[in-house]
Design brief:
The complex is a heterodimer of chains A (379) and B (92).
Chain A lengths: L3 E2 L2 E4 L3 H12 L4 E4 L15 E2 L6 H21 L10 E5 L2 H16 L6 E4 H7 L10 E5 L3 E2 L2 H14 L3 E3 L4 E7 L2 E7 L4 E3 L2 E4 L5 H6 L8 E12 L7 E4 L6 E4 L5 E6 L14 H14 L7 E12 L6 E4 L5 E5 L5 H17 L24
Parallel strand pairs in A: 1-12, 2-3, 2-13, 3-9, 5-15, 13-20
Antiparallel strand pairs in A: 4-8, 5-7, 6-7, 10-11, 11-12, 14-17, 14-18, 15-16, 16-17, 19-20
Chain B lengths: L7 E3 L4 E2 H9 L5 H8 L11 H13 L18 E2 H5 L5
Antiparallel strand pairs in B: 1-2
Classes of the chains: A alpha/beta (379), B mainly alpha (92).
The structure holds flavin-adenine dinucleotide.
Amino acid sequence: MSAHKSDAVIIGGGIIGTACGYYLSQKGLKVAIVEQGYLCSGSTGRCIGGIRQQFSSSGSIRLMMESVKHFQNMEQELGTDVHWHNGGYLFLAHSPQKKQAFLSNIAVQQAAGLKDVRWVEADECREITPGMDATGLLGGSYCPSDGQAYPFAVVQGYAGKIRQSGGSIHTFSKATHILQQGGKVSGVRIESGREFSAGVVINAAGPWSRDIGQMAGIEIPVEAERHEALITEGVEYMNIPMLVDYRADGGYFQQYRHNGQFIGCYTPVPNVPGHSTDSTFEFLHQMPKRMLKLVPGLKDLKVIRQWAGSYENTPDGNPILDRTGLDGFYTVAGMCGHGFMLGPAMGRVAADLIVSGGRDLQYPEFALKRDFTQAEAMK
Amino acid sequence: MASNTDKIVCRCEDITESEILEAIAQGAATADEVKRLTRAGMGHCQGRTCRRLVNQMLAKALGQKPEDQRPITQRAPLQPLTIKALAEYKEP
Ligand SMILES: Cc1cc2nc3c(=O)[nH]c(=O)nc-3n(C[C@H](O)[C@H](O)[C@H](O)COP(=O)(O)OP(=O)(O)OC[C@H]3O[C@@H](n4cnc5c(N)ncnc54)[C@H](O)[C@@H]3O)c2cc1C
């Protein structure tokens, strides 16, 4: 079997792998994506499509402001309707501590250039969210330029562009070995024994990125954590933003503009470590309880489906975007449950890094070797 | 693209035969991939009607037997349930 030849092999066909592939193709590189399942079979096809710029560190805020610009132009750029809609995000504060935390984050966000984020009092929260029960609510952090898009369409859009530029996508192709020659990376071998040779290899394997690193003896500190989600039937658009309730019995949910379905999830306490796609009955009745508490008018909506997938956490809640100890081998992973929204900007920045031969590190805070103790507050 | 004579395969999401054939032509080799490309099986009935049809179409296009096609993943709840009914559930 002769080896497949390209300029860059990307391991992983989620949002990160396809975004990296798209931006590298735009720079004239021939890319090959190897994906163990099909496109979106990892975390990307399991996410709820939320896109926000409200973070607590200036790196993530700036990166997300760029991503939002990409989402705004995406339909034109990719020739596919990705259902981008700026429905906004409203983070709810039910305690003085939360309010204080949001106020200081808003100051950081505004200083980073995010001008339309602001504190809104409880009355205005109710206006922004028709039908909301504001019991105990002190107010919220609101950014109307945050929004939503449809993950499958975004990934297919990138994949289409990659193929148009002469790149290739190999599904049901599981990477098993990182190949090296003369101290440099030289390609990837997949389970069938087929080899993909290239001078650049990118680990975009999300929750599995640690395993890929290990194939080259490189430690990638990414841990999978199970998160569940559900979706309802579609109903008329109610014009409410993505609601984020960080309380232990809270959750996050939004309504898709394009088809009226409500989609939501929450972070279980305690967390559920390890990769698993098993869903639970507990989630199936807890999530509706949490949605009803915030918007009682949703009571007659029907839930049609539930599922689960992985967040891919790093110790400090920030992604990893860097070269590694092995020349030509890069890691773009550990998106900490925000990979869909970060994807477009991550892909752009990663492509710049790779064509610079690993020198153009625009976000030193995402380096592989860093002090992992400064945690992102708006997880 | 849907034409006047095109048959609807997924009634919940309004997905036609030609849209499914197009997904297969794009490289979809499993019902799960067809679902993610077209939304066939993602609607209210969760593929109860269309999953057999999609498997038949895949089998025909790929020269395989329909029974060898892996069906789309079945997910709970088996039948749509209201937010209220679910929220009222109390731990025994
Ligand atoms: C319930 C839930 C809700 C979420 N909501 C949001 C949200 O609203 N907004 C947001 O931005 N993010 C959200 N996320 C997080 C988001 O889904 C992830 O951060 C993102 O999808 C990560 O993308 P990725 O490309 O890095 O990983 P993935 O999509 O997992 O892609 C990695 C791919 O690598 C493949 N792979 C693994 N090992 C190998 C191998 N050996 N060989 C070949 N291929 C391999 C996998 O099959 C997989 O397809 C949510 C996640 C969950 C679970």
